[in-house]
Design goal:
Blueprint lengths: L2 H22 L2 H12 L2 E2 L20 E3 L6 E5 L6 E3 L12 E3 L4 E3 L14 E3 L6 E2 L13 E3 L4 E2 L15 E3 L21 E3 L6 E2 L13 E3 L4 E5 L12 E3 L4 E4 L13 E3 L4 E4 L13 E3 L4 E4 L13 E3 L4 E2 L16 E3 L6 E2 L13 E3 L4 E2 L15 E3 L21 E3 L6 E2 L13 E3 L4 E5 L12 E3 L4 E4 L13 E3 L4 E4 L13 E3 L4 E4 L13 E3 L4 E5 L12 E3 L4 E4 L12 E3 L4 E5 L12 E3 L4 E4 L13 E3 L4 E2 L15 E3 L6 E3 L12 E3 L4 E4 L13 E3 L4 E5 L12 E3 L4 E4 L13 E3 L4 E5 L13 E3 L4 E5 L12 E3 L4 E5 L12 E3 L4 E5 L17 E3 L11 H25 L5 H17 L5 H11 L3 H14 L18 H9 L1
Parallel strand pairs: 3-5, 4-6, 5-7, 7-9, 8-10, 9-11, 11-12, 12-14, 13-15, 14-16, 15-17, 16-18, 17-19, 18-20, 19-21, 20-22, 21-23, 22-24, 24-26, 25-27, 26-28, 28-29, 29-31, 30-32, 31-33, 32-34, 33-35, 34-36, 35-37, 36-38, 37-39, 38-40, 39-41, 40-42, 41-43, 42-44, 43-45, 44-46, 45-47, 46-48, ...
Antiparallel strand pairs: 1-4, 2-3
């Protein structure tokens, strides 16, 4: 049977019930049905105990009888602690006019049989745990005036049959899980005064038909998923006093028609997507008490004027894009403004002096704007102010002393401005002050002793200023202090012992100062302390043993101080999440008690003097993310139990005395991003299993005793940025699979026993920037030309290998290179011209390498040598012909003697060489470099000398055969 058929059947039964009521109405039948209703309830408070057949029904708890006592007309069991379900038998109480089961723990569905209660005028089922849909049959209750069934777990759509309740005044469906659209049939409810649909999951548009509900006074649809524009027709609801459309996805502009809602007292449109300007027509709403347009996209200037809105108490416009200055007439006349929230806009200019006329103001928030100028000295005229928030602006000048006259002030936010000067001593008069935030300014001077008179202070934050002097010795007077943040100032001296008497303290941040001395033993009283940061000071000495009593500590950072002794006293808490003791002088073993904090995420103990083994109990720290034990004196092996720390991302153990083999189970730590085991005494091979650490960014195993080959699986580390395997005993070739590590930034393989050629594939690592260091190995072959693709590379070291061949011209493309070392190889040929910027020691130890900054390259004068040799031969021939002509009658013996003497002079003469040598010397030989290159130069140039003149011929004899050979070379 369909819903429509059910509806008509129930209508017939309802008419029949009315007839029966007239002819047979009596309380005896009502008692029968009520006892059946009682059986469906669970009554832990005994509210229904007197519901019995032996008692007068009109005396039963929660019942109301008619004047003639013949009928039950009212049932009110609100707030009775009942659970169970609502019985369908209620439908038999046909005279019932009021049914109130609100504020209980009832479950199940709303019975559709309730639609038979034709005399029902009020139905209250709100604040239970009812589920299911709203029955269509509720639409049959023609006399119903109040329907409040919200604050349940109702689902589905709002039934359109509610539009049939023509006499309905109050409809409350809020705080449920209803979805779908708002039915247009609600517009039929001409006498509706209150419509509450807030905090559901309603979507779609606001139906304009609601404007037909002319008597509507309360309309709330906040916290739904409604969208589209606000219907301008809502401006016709002249009786409206409360309009709440907040926290939806409404867009468009605010209707100017809202200016006609003359009875409106509360207007809330926050948390939508409204844009455009604030309509000036809203200034006509003289009855308006609260206006909230925050968290929208409104722009333009603020044109809300208190001259007309004399009843306005709360103006909330934060989180928009409003521009211009703060209106000077916000508080003109007899202002009642108590809350002014203009934060997170784009307001500029100074604080208008007229704003100080808002003597009724209690909360003033102008934070997160672009306001400038100094804080007005007349702030004390705002005598009722409890909260003053001026943070995140560009205010300058000092904090006026008149601030001390705001006797009701509880919250003062001035952080992130450009305030200077001291904290005025008058601030000590603020007995109600609870929160004081002055951080991120440029304030200076000492912390005034008078501040210790502000006994209500719970939070102090002076971070990032220039306060000097010591922490006041009387700070212990602030018994209510929960947070003390003095980080990043210039405070000096010891931590006052009285601080230990601030027993409610939970967060203590004194880092980045110049504090000295030891920790006070009074810290044992800070049993609520959860955070303590003292890093970057000069604190010293052993930690008080009583710190073991601080069981609630979650964050400890004592790094970069001079603390010494055992860290055992910090292991008393089982709530530790982060601990950083880096760069101190702590000694002794690592206490296994640290592992009692099973939620420990970050543990940094580097740069101390800790000894002993890494506790195997660390394997219990399943949440551990960061473990840094570097630069200590730890010994032994890496415990197997660490393999249980599956969330470990940083394992930093470098610079210890750890030994043994690098565990293969490290490859099972899939979250590992940094593994640094360098500068220890590990031996064995590099585990191939490390190739499974796909998230690894840094792998440093340098300065150990590792041997064997670099595993091919290293190429699986596609996210790797840093690979450092230098200073080991690794052998074999460089695996070409490294080319798959495309994100490498640094690659160091130096000081090993690697052989073979440099893989051509290294040229594919185009993100290499910081260094490529393959020095001090036994690499051979030529330098791959592909290295010229590494255009980001800044340092390249291939020295002390057995590399051969020429330096590839492609290396000239490495324009980012500022350190280059190719020395001590077997390289030859001419250097790329761009390498002239590097010092000559970058290339020493390559005898056949030439070009700037080395010696000149003889290869460039090869053609000259050939040309010069031909000239020499021609000269000899001419000389022979000339000599033969002139002394043709001379004996052969004399000629032979003359020729032998000439050859001897040619070889031994020190100033022969002619113009060609002078030209070469000018181009290639400079200063001290001439001494270094003279020998090599003569090895090349000796055979290219010009022939001597006849006067230089020596009488010494030389073999003719030898002479011919010398002149033909």
């Amino acid at each position: 049977m369909g819903i429509t058929q059910n509806y008509h059947l129930l209508l017939f039964l309802s008419v029949l019930a009315v007839i029966l009521t007239v002819t047979h109405g009596d309380t005896s039948m009502d008692s029968h049905w009520l006892l059946r209703v009682k059986s469906q309830f669970i009554d832990p408070q005994g509210v229904l105990e007197n519901w019995s057949s032996g008692a007068d029904i009109c005396s039963w708890n929660g019942l109301k009888c008619s004047e003639n006592l013949n009928q039950v007309v009212g049932l009110n069991l609100s707030g009775s602690g009942l659970s169970g379900s609502i019985s369908p038998e209620f439908s038999n109480l046909i005279s019932l006019q009021t049914l109130d089961l609100s504020l209980n723990f009832l479950t199940g569905a709303i019975p559709q049989e309730l639609g038979q209660l034709q005399n029902l005028m009020e139905l209250h089922l709100f604040s239970n745990s009812l589920s299911g849909k709203i029955p269509d049959e509720i639409g049959l209750l023609k006399k119903l005036q109040v329907l409040r069934i919200g604050d349940n777990m109702l689902t589905g759509e709002i039934t359109p049959y509610l539009g049939n309740l023509s006499d309905l005044r109050v409809l409350g469906l809020g705080y449920s899980q209803l979805n779908g659209t708002i039915p247009v049939e609600i517009g039929n409810l001409k006498h509706l005064k209150s419509l509450n649909l807030q905090k559901n999951s309603l979507s779609g548009l606001i139906p304009g038909e609601i404007s037909s509900c002319k008597e509507l006074q309360f309309f709330s649809i906040e916290n739904n998923k409604l969208e589209g524009q606000i219907p301008a027709s809502l401006g016709k609801l002249e009786a409206l006093e409360v309009l709440n459309l907040s926290n939806n996805s409404l867009s468009g502009q605010i209707p100017t028609e809202f200016g006609g809602l003359f009875n409106l007292k509360y207007l809330n449109l926050l948390g939508n997507r409204l844009s455009g300007r604030i309509p000036s027509e809203l200034n006509q709403l003289s009855q308006l008490n609260t206006l909230d347009f925050s968290r929208n996209n409104l722009s333009g200037t603020i044109n809300i004027f208190n001259t007309q809105l004399k009843n306005l108490e709360s103006l909330v416009l934060y989180d928009n894009f409003l521009t211009g200055e703060i209106p000077s007439n916000l508080c003109a006349g007899n202002s009642n403004l108590q809350k002014l929230f203009l934060a997170r806009n784009k307001l500029t200019g100074v604080i208008p002096t007229e704003l100080l006329n808002c003597s009724s103001l209690q909360q003033l928030d102008l934070s997160d704007n672009g306001l400038t100028g100094e804080l007005p000295s007349g702030l004390d005229s705002l005598e009722n102010l409890t909260d003053l928030l001026f943070n995140n602006n560009s205010f300058t000048g000092t904090l006026p002393s008149q601030i001390g006259n705001l006797s009701k002030l509880e919250t003062l936010f001035l952080f992130h401005n450009s305030l200077t000067g001291k904290i005025p001593a008058e601030i000590g008069k603020l007995q109600r002050l609870s929160v004081l935030y002055l951080y991120e300014n440029q304030m200076s001077g000492t912390i005034p002793l008078e501040l210790m008179n502000c006994s209500s202070l719970t939070e102090i934050d002076f971070f990032g200023n220039h306060f000097t002097g010591s922490i006041p010795a009387t700070i212990g007077k602030l018994k209510n202090l929960v947070l003390l943040q003095l980080r990043q100032n210039d405070l000096s001296g010891p931590i006052p012992p009285s601080l230990g008497y601030c027993k409610k303290l939970q967060s203590l941040a004194l880092a980045d100062n110049k504090l000295s001395g030891t920790l006070p033993i009074t810290f044992r009283f800070l049993t609520d302390l959860s955070l303590i940061t003292l890093y970057n000071n000069s604190l010293e000495g052993p930690l008080p043993e009583s710190l073991f009593l601080l069981k609630n500590i979650t964050f400890i950072n004592l790094s970069h101080n001079k603390f010494s002794g055992s860290i055992h006293h910090l292991s008393g808490s089982t709530n530790l999440i982060k601990m950083d003791l880096t760069n101190n002088s702590f000694s002794g073993p690592i206490p296994s008690g640290l592992t009692n904090s099973r939620n420990l995420i970050r543990l940094r103990l580097g740069k101390n003097h800790l000894t002993g083994n890494i506790p195997s109990e660390f394997g219990l720290l399943s949440e551990l993310n960061f473990l840094d034990l570097s630069s200590n004196n730890l010994t032994g092996e890496i415990p197997l139990q660490l393999s249980n720390c599956k969330k470990l991302e940083h394992l930093v153990l470098h610079s210890n005395q750890l030994a043994g083999m690098i565990p293969s189970w490290l490859g099972s730590l899939e979250a590992l991003g940094e593994l640094d085991l360098s500068s220890n005494s590990f031996h064995g091979t590099v585990p191939a299993e490390l190739g499974s650490c796909s998230r690894l960014l840094k792998l440093s195993l340098s300065d150990n005793k590792l041997s064997g080959e670099i595993p091919l699986e290293i190429g699986n580390l596609s996210s790797l940025n840093v690979l450092n395997l230098q200073k080991n005993n690794l052998s074999g070739s460089i695996p070409s699979t490294i080319q798959q590590c495309m994100k490498l930034y640094t690659l160091r393989l130096s000081e090993n026993f690697l052989t073979g050629e440099i893989p051509f594939e290294l040229g594919k690592l185009t993100d290499l920037q910081e260094m490529l260091d393959l020095s001090r190995n036994f690499l051979s072959g030529e330098i791959p030309s592909s290295l010229g693709n590494l255009i980001k590379l800044e340092r390249l070291n291939l020295s002390f290998n057995q590399l051969q061949g020429e330096v590839p011209p492609t290396l000239g493309r490495l324009t980012s290179l500022h350190v280059l070392n190719l020395s001590n190889n077997l390289l030859q040929g001419e250097l790329p011209s761009s390498f002239s910027q590097f010092p000559s020691n970058s290339f020493l130890g390559n005898e056949k390498l030439c070009g700037a900054p080395m010696s000149l390259c003889s290869g460039s004068t090869g053609s000259d040598r050939k040309s010069l040799s031909d000239t020499t031969v021609a000269g000899i021939v001419v000389a022979i012909v000339f000599t033969s002509t002139m002394i043709c009658l001379t004996l052969l013996y004399i000629m032979l003697r003359i020729w032998c003497n000439w050859r001897k002079v040619s070889i031994s003469s020190s100033d022969s060489g002619g113009d060609e040598f002078k030209k070469g010397e000018e181009k290639w030989v400079y200063g001290d470099d001439q001494k270094k290159m003279n020998g090599d130069y003569w090895k090349v140039m000796n055979s290219t000398s010009m022939l001597p003149s006849p006067e230089q011929i020596s009488p010494n004899t030389t073999c003719i055969f030898q002479l011919k050979m010398n002149t033909m070379v």
